[in-house]
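During the reporting period, we have paired protein sequences with backbone structure tokens. One record among many follows, to show the layout:
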Amino acid sequence: MNVRELIEQYNDAWNAHDVDAICALHAPGMVFENHTADERAEGDAVRAHIAGIFAAYPDLHFTTRDLRTGDDFAVCEWTARTGDREWDGVDVFPLRDGLILRKDVYSASHRPRSV
């Protein structure tokens, strides 16, 4: 699987709230860091952290706006939606051996959806 396919599969798993499929694409020792929310989880703690996100936002959905890839990295610009909120952000993914080594999240604050 190439890098673009890997990230597309990963994003699909996020939209399906499929924690097993998400974690299957993580390298050992993976780091999830949301720099905007000041959240960080590493290794085995990443699974519980992601499950907690889905528990808090059961209707969370992402739309990819742009996806740039290289041999060992990807940068994905997205719009997230939950309830009456939406916000834009970007994920930076360093990769190792075809798996996601890190997910560094940078996003705008949640804002009401325009009507």
Observations:
- Strands lie at 26-34, 39-42, 61-69, 73-82, 85-96, 99-107, 111-112.
- The longest strand covers residues 85-96.
- DSSP finds three helices and seven strands in the chain.
- Residues 60 and 82 are 5 Å apart (CA to CA).
